[in-house]
Amino acid sequence: LLERHPNLYMSLRLSIAAPPPFMAMDPGPKLKPEWVALLTGFPDRFVLGTDTFHSPAGAARRGPEDRLENYRAALLQLPRELAEAIAFRNAERIYRLNGR
Question: Among candidates 50, 43, 51, which has minimal Cα distance to 89?
């Protein structure tokens, strides 16, 4: 889809609670090679997706720091330029933030 649709952008959501086969990271937590290839192949098309969903009343909750640990781990495994693009530069460009 990314090859056929140049205006398609993806939100990279690295939730701890996602089903394991669909997660971009293994339990290491290390980015899976196919995800590194996808991110490298389309460096200008991904942004971080940090939206939060609320748990039912009484469910165990994790703090904001716990929710962000997978994002930090993933970004540290990428080349700096790619990590910065995904972390904030793509969003600045796509949403025309900071006068860009």
Answer: 43
Average pLDDT, the chain: 83
What does the chain come to in residues?
100
Say how many C-beta atoms besides its own lie within 10 A of residue 79's C-beta: 12
Between vectors from CA 32 to CA 29 and to CA 33, what angle results, nearest 5°?
140
Cis peptide before 43 (omega within 30 of 0): no
Distances (CA, A) of 59 to 21, 55, 66, 82: 24, 6, 16, 36
What digits encode the pLDDT tens for the residues 16-41? 665 567 788 887 888 999 999 999 99
